[in-house]
From TrEMBL:
A Pfam family recorded for this sequence: LEA-2_1
Species of the source: Eremomyces bilateralis CBS 781.70
The protein's name: Pre-rRNA processing protein
Chain segments carrying region Disordered: 1-57
Sorted UniProt keywords: Membrane, Transmembrane, Transmembrane helix
Skewed-composition ranges (Low complexity): 12-21
Organism lineage: Eukaryota, Fungi, Dikarya, Ascomycota, Pezizomycotina
Length: 864
């Protein structure tokens, strides 16, 4: 703006000659002085005294003084020369008025108006809608409100003069203008430019102007936008300061008011910034595909619906995006996993946006599969785990090159500078694995002498169906699996199954219409340790399986590692959650433990002491289950009538489903050590009954130390008792059928009575198959129908070898005259049935015992 000071100075200089000429004329007039002369002098003093001291005041005072002098001169001239000087005075007056008006409107008014406008103007944008995309920016429909409020002006004089001036002007018109937009908190660069067309506005006080125009919005620097967007998405943005600077050419009517600068600032709260709208993925399928570059890869077809509460009416050209995920830590670079392309999209005002896109996974980056430092998981493991659990994970979308060359470059530049985090939830698969089953189950009990085998082991064929989400429809080939599983029963943890060794596996998709679909995974587990953590619960489980004849359903909760091959590459997924139900059929089938049908034969004595005997025997039994087992060592108590008489052990045996024969059992008969004198008495009674042909049974009972390396398992099995009959004499070679009334072989198979020599010989069947039994003493009585026949007492030992043998002639003291003896004599040359009662001393090796014997239906031949 031109400074008015020089003009004022110039005006003062130009006045001086006129003043001097006037004073010269006045001095001439003094000669013709009249009474009016002093009045002129007084008027000049008043003008000077009444004007202000500023430059504008001096100019105005000088001009008025000069005009007054001219008028005074004209008056005097009119008196002297009437009718000749007044046109000059009028012309001079008009000239001065025009000059003053020019000075005021050119220099003074703009200054006043600029200050008034900068304080009084109220600018409020109301609506911004995008009309179309251009190569340089966006055409937008802009609506805003403009008014002048004089109450906002601080200086009284400016406020009044501005109000008067705008009332006179009424309307102003701007030319085409440019508005530069800044984000002061993120640098001084211009982030965008708005080109506004000419507008007209009523500038009178409190008049509201609602203006609608089409503006061209041009993006500029992207770095401030990137910084602001990053702070917003991180939740660090509380307010946004926006500043706009506009240079506007203004005129009012024919008066050009020059270029005016308007600065507009506003602080916007983060809560007023539109949030990322919630979206709904209506369709998502990932499948194998031939990529555009000719290679094989994965393709994702996505459709989503996004609510649009804004009056936008815009067509967006095809866009390209990069899909990224987090690395091991927030400080690591994000990992690009896929390219995505969005089809052209039309946005209608206040209508849901339906977007369709396609993504391509060309390769799986190594950084996505590498195990993170200090962890056992990779970024891919964490993503998959969150997806399966339905937890919220985050993917990042960043703009990239567009697939369409007609897409404006400024869009890709802008989008590539902004990374938008998109929360994403998986389907929350409750039952990832169904139809979990174990076949050919083999249990291996721990070896008590091993330093490494601490837990029972399970080997089995595992078959499971993995419920893959419907969205995943690409090739998956599982090659190896391993897992760490918790085993639950009745909603309590029973134990842990450790499958940390990689197990070979295979898989195939189920595509049969009759099948429910999914991925069938088959694997053989070899030697997986099973650790029992709740002994009481395990005891209840065993009781349920053995005695209640109920199927037990075990729940397995596992984290699984999988080695698999896809179209892109082979990869390893870790800590996948898996669960399943494994039914265990009851072991006690049919008639309970009778279905085991245990049998013992080929009893051999291997060692003796004065109080104990060690046997080796061959056992046969039936395994009614489908399970097999390896038993390195197992000890069981031998119980009769609740009294422990000894132990039986097995070592390194294999138990298979069905018949199991010739199982070597080592048994120790040691009643005194196990149960003292009571045990010794019960033992004598058992042997006596056994040799006498009574139906005797032995009970086998597990105990805490049945499995020495795992006493808790033995404790759980301590209520298990198996009762089976003692071996019969029929197992002895050549025993044949006895002559007893029951038709079974007995210890005394038969006898021959020699009347003349008063002796008798006995045919004996030994219960032992390879060891000689010695009879050390006999004190016996023979009866015929309850009548005594004779008495035998013999104190010289004789041997009873395995099988059938005959005793030496033993002396008999006949009970002459008795009914029994008469019956014997009458049977001379024939035979009759006798029974006997005896106390017999027996010895095997160093062991010796005094027992009783009762025999019925003994076939006795009578000879002279």
């Amino acid at each position: 703006m031109a400074d008015p000071a020089p003009d004022t100075t110039g005006a003062s200089t130009s006045r001086s000659p006129s003043s001097r000429s006037l004073r010269s004329r006045d001095s001439q007039g003094d000669k013709n002085a009249t009474e009016r002369t002093p009045l002129l002098s007084r008027n000049e003093d008043v003008q000077v005294g009444n004007h202000e001291d500023d430059e504008d005041g001096e100019v105005a005072a000088s001009g008025l003084a000069e005009t007054h002098s001219l008028l005074s001169s004209s008056t005097r001239d009119e008196t002297t020369h009437p009718g000749k000087r007044w046109p000059s005075a009028v012309a001079l007056l008009l000239l001065c008025l025009v000059a003053a008006a020019i000075l005021v409107f050119r220099f003074v008014v703009p200054v006043i108006i600029e200050e008034y406008a900068s304080q009084a103007v109220v600018f409020e944008p109301t609506t911004l809608t995008f009309d179309s995309v251009t190569p340089d920016g966006v055409h937008a429909n802009v609506e805003f409100m403009v008014q002048f409020d004089s109450s906002r002006v601080e200086r009284f004089a400016i406020r009044n003069l501005g109000r008067i001036g705008t009332w006179i002007a009424r309307e102003i018109q701007s030319g085409e203008s440019r508005v530069n937009v800044f984000l002061p908190d993120f640098g001084d660069a211009v982030v965008g430019i708005a080109v506004l067309p000419p507008v007209k506005a009523d500038v009178r006080d409190k008049r509201v102007n609602k203006i609608k125009e089409v503006a061209n919005l041009i993006p500029a620097a992207v770095e401030p936008i990137r910084s602001a967007a990053g702070a917003y998405f991180r939740g660090q943005l509380t307010t946004v300061n926006i500043r706009g600077i506009a240079h506007i050419p203004v005129r009012s009517g024919i008066i050009d008011l020059g270029n005016r600068t308007i600065i507009y600032s506003r602080t916007v709260s983060a809560t007023d910034i539109p949030a990322i709208p919630k979206y709904n993925i209506t369709h998502l399928v990932v499948h194998d595909a031939d990529l555009p570059d000719g290679n094989q890869g994965l393709q994702a077809d996505v459709s989503m619906k996004v609510p649009n509460p804004y009056p936008l009416d815009l067509t967006i050209p095809p866009l390209g995006f990069g899909i990224l995920v987090d690395g091991c830590s927030p400080n690591d670079p994000q990992i690009m996993v896929a390219d995505a392309f969005c089809e052209p999209l039309h946005i209608s005002p206040n209508a849901d946006i339906v977007a369709n896109g396609t993504g391509f996974v060309r390769r799986i980056p190594e950084s996505l599969m590498d195990v993170c430092p200090g962890s056992q998981k990779s970024p891919l493991d964490m993503i998959v785990k969150d997806y399966i659990h339905g937890a919220e994970t985050t993917v990042y979308i960043r703009g990239s090159d567009s697939p369409d060359v007609e897409t404006p470059k400024w869009i890709t530049n802008l989008l590539s500078s902004i990374t938008i985090p998109v929360p994403f939830k998986g389907p929350a698969i409750d039952h990832l694995i169904r139809n979990f089953s174990l076949t050919d189950v083999h249990f291996k009990l721990p070896d008590p002498e091993s330093e490494t085998d601490n837990d029972p082991e399970i080997s089995a064929d595992i078959e499971a169906i993995v419920n893959l989400p419907d969205q995943l429809d690409f090739t998956v080939n599982v090659s190896h699996v391993r897992a760490l599983a918790d085993v639950h029963w009745k909603e309590k943890k029973l134990g842990e199954l450790n499958l940390q060794k990689w197990q070979e596996a295979s898989s195939r998709r189920l595509t049969d219409p009759d099948e429910l679909g999914g991925l069938l995974v088959q694997a053989h587990v070899d030697g997986a340790p099973l650790k029992i953590t709740d002994q009481d619960l395990f005891t209840q489980l065993v009781a349920t399986l053995l005695f209640k004849k109920q199927t037990a359903f075990l729940t397995i909760e596992a984290t699984v590692d999988v080695k698999m091959a896809t179209t892109l590459t082979a990869l390893t997924l870790r800590d996948l959650p898996a669960s399943g139900v494994f039914p265990i059929k009851p072991i006690g089938l049919g008639s309970g433990w009778g279905s085991l049908a245990p049998q013992v034969g080929n009893v051999t004595i291997v060692e003796t002491t004065p109080d104990s005997i060690q046997f080796l025997a061959l056992a046969n039994f039936t395994n009614p289950t489908n399970y097999s087992a390896t038993v390195p060592y197992f000890d069981i108590k031998v119980v009769v009538n609740g009294t422990v008489l000894g132990h039986a052990t097995t070592e390194s045996i294999e138990i298979n489903p069905g018949n199991n024969t010739n199982i070597v059992v080592r048994a120790t008969y040691d009643p005194i050590t196990e149960s003292g004198n009571t045990g010794a008495a019960i033992g004598r009674e058992l042997i006596s009954q056994y040799l006498s042909g009574y139906n005797t049974t032995i009970t086998l009972r597990t105990h805490r130390n049945s499995i020495p390396s795992h006493p808790e398992i033995g404790e759980a099995l301590s209520s298990l008792e198996i009762e089976f009959p003692t071996p019969s004499f029929g197992s002895a070679p050549g025993a044949g059928n006895g002559d007893g009334s029951d038709g079974k072989p007995h210890f005394i198979q038969g006898a021959t009575m020699h009347l003349w020599s008063s002796t008798a010989t006995f045919l004996l069947v030994s219960p032992l198959t390879s060891t000689t039994l010695f009879i050390t003493k006999i004190n016996a009585t023979a009866f015929y129908k309850h009548d005594p026949v004779g008495h035998l007492q013999y104190e010289f030992p004789f041997a009873v070898p395995p099988g059938i043998s005959e005793t030496p002639r033993l002396p008999v003291d006949w009970d002459a005259g008795s009914v029994g003896y008469d019956a014997v004599r009458k049977a001379l040359g024939g035979s009759l049935k006798l029974h006997a009662e005896a106390e017999v001393g027996v010895r095997v090796g160093r062991w010796e015992e005094w027992i009783w014997y009762k025999g019925k239906g003994i076939g006795a031949k009578v000879r002279l």
